[in-house]
Structure formats: C-alpha cells, structure tokens
C-alpha cells in the first residue's frame, strides 16, 4: 500500500514525459506546454488509489490515470477559452499563447489522446471503463454548459447549483475512483460506494473552495481573496445569502451585484457574515464529508486498505489554498 | 448485398432520430440542429459497405457508422469555428447561431457521443476498433492543423499538400471502410487493401473537388465556381500551376494572389489553362483512382461482393457537384 504522496511522485515521473508525438509541432507543442504548467494531479491519484483498494496497482491503472489527467487538461484548455482566461497557475493559457484556433484543436487532440490511453486496457474491463469514461466526459460538458447558463440567470436554487457542481466537478472525481476499482476487480456494490464517496467528497471540496475564496487566510490562499465576489460568481455562499437575507440585506446585495466599486468585496462580506454564511458553509461541507466517510465505511475491504483514501480526504478538507 | 443508395436510405432512417438526451437543451439542441442540416453520409456508408464485403451487416456496424458520422460532424462544427464560416449547406453554422462557447462545447460533446457509440461493440473487436478510431481521429486533427499552417506559408510542395489532404480527408474514408471490415471478420491483409483503396479514392476525390471548383459546370456545381481562387486556397491546381508556370506566368500569378479585383478569377483561370492544369489534374485523379481500383482488386472476396464499392467509387468520381 502506498500513501497518496508517494503516488503523486510516481505519477509525476510517469506523466512527466512527452505525451504527444513530436510532429506536427504546431499541433502538439501547445499541448505539451499546457501539461508542463503542472497541477495537483488529484484525479489520476484517485484512480490509482481506487485500484489499490482492491489489488496491486496494475499497469492498466497507470494508463487509465494518464487518460483521466489528459481528459481533465482537455477540459481546462477549452474552459479557459470559454472563460476568456488569460492565465492559469500564473502561466499563459493555450489560447492566449497560441491563438484560439490552435487552442481549440489542442483541446480536441488532448481528448482523443486520452482515449488512446484506454485502447490497450485489458479487454475484459475495457467496455465498462469506456462506458463510464464516456458518461462522465459527457456529464462534465453538461456541467460546464449549466455553469454558463447559470451565469446569465438572475437566480439559481441551491439544488440546481449542487447538480451543476456535481456534473462539472464531482463525477470525474467519483469516476476516477470507480474506474480504478473496476480494474482492481471490485464488485459492483463496492464500486457504487466508492463512486458515492468521490461524489460527496467532490461537493464538500467545492464548498470548501467557495468558502476559502471569501473567508480564506489571505496569506495562505495564494490568490486574492474575494475574487468570486468581484466577478459575481454564483457560489454556495452567495446563493445561500440570497436565500436567507432579510429584505433589506437582499436589496443591498442586489445593488452590490450590479456595482464594481472598491467597497464591493468588504460590503458583500459584511452581509455574508450577518447571514452567518460562513458557519452554514462549514456545516454543509461537514455534512457532505460525513456522507463521503460513511460511503467509504460501506466498502467491504479492511480499514487498513482505506487509510490512504482517508488521509487524502482529510488533506483535501484541511487545505487552505 | 445492398447497393449504396439502399444503404444511404437505411442509414438515414437510423440516424434521423435524436442522437442526444433531451436535457440540458442548451447543450444538446445545437447538436441536433447541426445534424439536421444533413450531409452526404458517405463515411458511415463506407463503414457499412466495408462490413458487407465480409459478412451480413451487423448491428455493431450500424453503431460504428453512427459513431463515424458523429465524429465527422464534430470536425465540421469545430472547423467552421476555425474558418469563421457563417454558413454550411446554406444554413447557419453552430457558432453563428448559438455563439462560440456553445459551439465549442457542442463539438466536444459530439466527439464524446461518437465514443459512446463504440462502447457496446463486440468486445472481441473493440480494442482494434477503438485503436483505429483514435489514430484516425488524431490524424484528422493533424491534417486540420497542417491546413491552417499551410495557409500562412508562401509555398507548399505538392507532396506536402497530398500528405495534408491524406490526413484531413482520406484517412477517415479509409478507416471507415477498414473498421467495417474488421467487424466483418476480415483478415489483416484484406483490411490493409481496403484501407489503401479508401485512402487513394479519397485523394482522387479531393483532386476532383479542387478541379470542379475551377472547371466545374456552373449550372451543375451548386456553388459559385472559382471560390477557391478568390480565397487564395492552396489547391492541387494552384500548387501545380506555381510549379510549372513560366517566370512571366509566375509573376502574374503572384500579383493576382495579392489582389482581389473582379478579374481575379478569370485571370487566374487563364493561367491555369495556359499551364494545362485541367488536363494534369484529370490525369492525376485518374492515377489515384486506378491505384484505388487495384487495391480493390487485391481484396480476396468475389467480385460480385465488390460491386457496391465499385459503383460508389464511380459515382463519386463522376459527380459534378
């Protein structure tokens, strides 16, 4: 058994080679550039951890982990275009550095490359893996579309937001775990528990993300606190505040959402605090974390085998950036 | 055995249903719209014809044919974005009708949907099919990138152009045939001959395409003759003219390429005719057609089984639009 930090190092070594052919460089060099920017590599590690719950880590699991990380990077390249984001991790995004057309095609070929990493998987498992990979990929696109739709809508219910977040973020975390487990020979029941664990953990993770953007420690957060507020991003915090605000607070929030003055962030924060949004968010995050831990409990393997997943969950929940 | 017109009708019926879930409509309705614009459906028919060379047509072959047509439509949606094309078949392109972000995501989800059509293929054939599908998909992206690269280059050799056309157009025709054949249980040798048949036919088809744009009968061509010339598109005709032109003709061509006056098309056509570009193109097309027919000859099945493919090849080569 490996802990997740060992696996991060191992995946880093395996993934840190060229992922594309050399030519034509005009197509493949932008892809290699984007992969070189780095990332937390959480999804491929979840895949390998899911695999190791049930077996020794197989070569197929490493291939699948690579496919998952390539897929995730495909979504980032295209999402950056849709968001017109100039930077990611402080580096130029692909469309900024190479232009829209190349970024579009770089994303496309990154997605196809992900599928190439699946083609040599044990044929006994391939249909199941391909099917779950496909469903998940399509759901992630649905989540991205809903996210764009919500931006244009005056109000969104918390349930609709959770549904969107589940598609956009959680299902890939969940499927990464389950696909690893499938390769490890897990039963359908155990696969289901593991998927639910990943899904609930992903929602808790997103609540934490939204929380840190407003209430994080500026010294530890890494990026400017309040970015979501400045951009009027619909977050767990804002949606809850809009639900529980008094008519006065609601009117003030509506005005602030249409302004972009220097006081916007502190004034919205004041309403967030008056509405106890912070305590509510911590409680909601805890609720999803507990559901995730119950799902993990339900998986029929010894608790020793679960320790790496448990510590990853704790690590993700305690991060401050 | 069916002739290709029967298969076009049968595929039309099967493909003419909803190809996506209903919700979220903001994501899937644009995809259905684009599929409803129609098309010649040549690639899926090649798949089914390749299958019927070696067996009764299987349900898997119809699924694969659908995957291929979805893949082709994904490339069209994204190519239209890269070319900033407002219309396709006289209808609005997806990005024109729905905006860039939705078109980007509609293409992505169309590609993923194509892979979903592969997941239930007989597991005995799946790894081979997935592998050839992936390679081909990536090559089509390479062809598109080279096409964009060539637009910015002052000169391109005929060999480089044929390489680009092979990737952008021919490999998908070739792979459609071969993947159908794989599902029909064809031997690797027969698969190879069929692939080469499709590849050479595809090049002949593209030469014909370039020829018709300049020398087609305006009454039968359907679109305005000379469009490629007006847009300075690198075509078989232009590249050959640049190769064989006298210094005087070459100087005149270079000037015309920088102009956009009303005489541009007739003046370029005059040089094309003086260089015998039309006769050369017909001869080159014939050369690739004959190679294709020799490849077809090499396939070890009775000639009766080959008649549908032969008449499709003749149909494609005799078309005037």
Topology:
Two copies of one chain form a homodimer.
Chain A lengths: L3 H12 L9 H12 L5 H11 L6 H24 L4 E2 L2 E2 L1 H5 L1 H17 L9 H26 L6 H26 L4 H28 L2 H4 L5 H4 L5 H9 L2 H12 L5 H11 L2 H22 L4 H16 L3
Describe the structure.
The structure is a homodimer of 321-residue chains. Chain A has 321 residues and is mainly alpha-helical. In chain A, 74% of the residues lie in helices and 1% in strands. Chain A contains 16 helices and two strands. A two-stranded antiparallel ribbon of chain A has the order 1-2. In chain A, strand 1 (87-88) and strand 2 (91-92) form a beta hairpin. Chain A is globular and about 60 Å long. Chain A starts with a helix and ends with a helix.
Short description:
Chain A is mainly α.
Number of strands of chain A: 2
Distance between the termini of chain A: 28 Å
* Overall 3D shape of chain A: globular
What radius of gyration of chain A results from the CA coordinates?
A: 20 Å
Helix/strand-derived class of chain A? mainly alpha
- How many helical stretches of chain A? 16
Largest sheet of chain A: 2 strands, antiparallel
Strand order of the largest sheet of chain A: 1-2
DSSP helix fraction of chain A: over 70%
What is the H/E order of chain A?
Answer: HHHHEEHHHHHHHHHHHH
Note the beta-strand portion of chain A: under 5%
Mean pLDDT of chain A: 95
- Assembly type of the chains comes to homodimer
Largest interface: A-B, 38 and 39 residues
Low-confidence stretches of chain A: none
């Amino acid at each position: 058994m490996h802990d997740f930090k060992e696996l991060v190092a191992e995946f880093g070594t395996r993934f840190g080679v060229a992922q594309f052919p050399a030519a034509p460089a005009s197509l493949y060099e932008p892809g290699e550039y984007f992969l070189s920017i780095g990332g937390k590599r959480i999804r491929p590690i979840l895949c390998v951890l899911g695999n190791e719950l049930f077996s020794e880590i197989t070569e197929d699991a490493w291939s699948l982990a690579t496919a998952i990380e390539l897929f995730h990077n495909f979504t980032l390249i295209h999402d950056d275009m849709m968001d017109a984001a100039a930077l990611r991790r402080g580096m130029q995004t692909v469309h900024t550095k190479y232009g829209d057309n190349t970024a579009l095609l770089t994303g496309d070929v990154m997605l196809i490359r992900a599928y190439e990493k699946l083609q040599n998987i044990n044929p006994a498992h391939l249909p199941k893996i391909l099917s779950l990979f496909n469903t998940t990929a399509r759901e992630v696109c649905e989540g991205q579309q809903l996210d764009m739709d919500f931006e244009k809508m005056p109000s969104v219910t918390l349930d609709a937001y959770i549904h969107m977040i589940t598609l956009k973020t959680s299902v890939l975390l969940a499927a990464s775990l389950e696909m690893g487990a499938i390769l490890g020979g897990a039963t359908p029941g155990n696969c289901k528990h593991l998927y639910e664990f990943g899904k609930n953990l992903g929602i808790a993770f997103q609540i934490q993300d939204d929380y840190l953007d407003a209430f994080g420690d500026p010294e530890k957060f890494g990026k400017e606190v309040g970015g979501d507020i400045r951009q009027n991003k619909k977050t767990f915090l804002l949606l809850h505040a809009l639900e529980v605000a008094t008519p006065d607070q609601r009117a003030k929030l509506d005005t602030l959402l249409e302004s972009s003055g220097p006081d916007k962030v502190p004034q919205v924060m004041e309403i967030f605090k008056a509405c106890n949004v912070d305590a509510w968010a911590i409680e909601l995050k805890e609720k999803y974390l507990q559901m995730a831990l119950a799902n993990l409990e339900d998986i029929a393997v010894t608790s020793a085998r679960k320790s790496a997943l448990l510590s990853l969950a704790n690590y993700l929940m305690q991060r401050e950036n």
